[in-house]
Design brief:
Elements (H helix, E strand, L loop, with lengths): L1 H9 L17 H65 L3 H16 L7 E7 L4 E7 L9 E7 L4 E6 L2 H26 L8 E7 L6
Parallel strand pairs: 2-5
Antiparallel strand pairs: 1-2, 3-4
Helix pairs in contact: 2-3, 3-4
């Protein structure tokens, strides 16, 4: 028997284990502990499953929202790209509406945020490629008449320091030149784009004089 048992051990074979012959019904305390543990395990499983389903639903909602936003964004991008291509086609064809719209857009954006620029109107003659820009300039009031203040101790008052008329006019003329040149520079850079070559003419209008 010993040799036989040793032979089985050497060949890797093992005898099946024999469990005690009893059931949960034979031990009420063991059955109660088993039921409590099974109940607790089922409760944790139900909670985990509910949490998993909530996360799954939240993910599905987030994916649907993202796809809807992405679809809207792509539609907007496609619309803008189509409008840009249409504008490019009109510029290459020297169409009046495309040229005027393009130059007006660029000039207005160049003057955007410039408090001393008023407005600009653009005209275009397709036959002669003649571009006319009417730039409305600000009035003299944009240059303050008062250049500072000083305190007079004897009467205890603050008196304004009036800017000399010649200095004020010089500053105003310099301002008009800067605004006009900024508009001129923007229109000039527009012509770097294909189909935007034009003969330019500028008229600067002052509201106070109309000249």
């Amino acid at each position: 028997m010993k040799a036989r048992g040793g032979s089985q051990h050497q060949t890797g074979m093992s005898l099946p284990r024999r469990h005690p012959a009893f059931s949960l019904g034979c031990c009420p305390a063991l059955r109660g502990r088993y039921e409590r543990r099974a109940f607790e395990a089922n409760r944790r499983f139900d909670e985990a499953e509910a949490s998993f389903r909530e996360r799954l639903q939240a993910r599905a909602t987030a994916v649907a929202t993202f796809e809807a936003d992405e679809s809207t964004r792509k539609s907007e991008v496609n619309r803008l790209n189509a409008s840009v291509r249409e504008l490019q086609r009109g510029l290459e064809a020297k169409e009046h509406s495309a040229v005027v719209g393009y130059f007006k857009l660029v000039i207005e954006r160049s003057l955007n945020g410039e408090p001393n620029a008023v407005s600009a109107e653009v005209g275009y003659a397709p036959d002669s490629w003649h571009l006319v820009v009417d730039l409305e300039l600000p009035e003299l009031s944009v240059v303050p008449e008062v250049m500072g203040f000083r305190y007079v101790k004897s009467p205890d008052r603050i008196d304004p320091i009036i800017r000399p008329a010649g200095k004020r006019k010089a500053l105003y003329a310099n301002l008009l030149c800067q605004v006009a040149l900024k508009c001129r520079n923007a229109a000039h850079h527009c012509q770097a784009s294909p189909g935007c070559s034009c003969n330019e003419e500028y008229r600067a209008l002052r509201p106070c004089s109309g000249a």
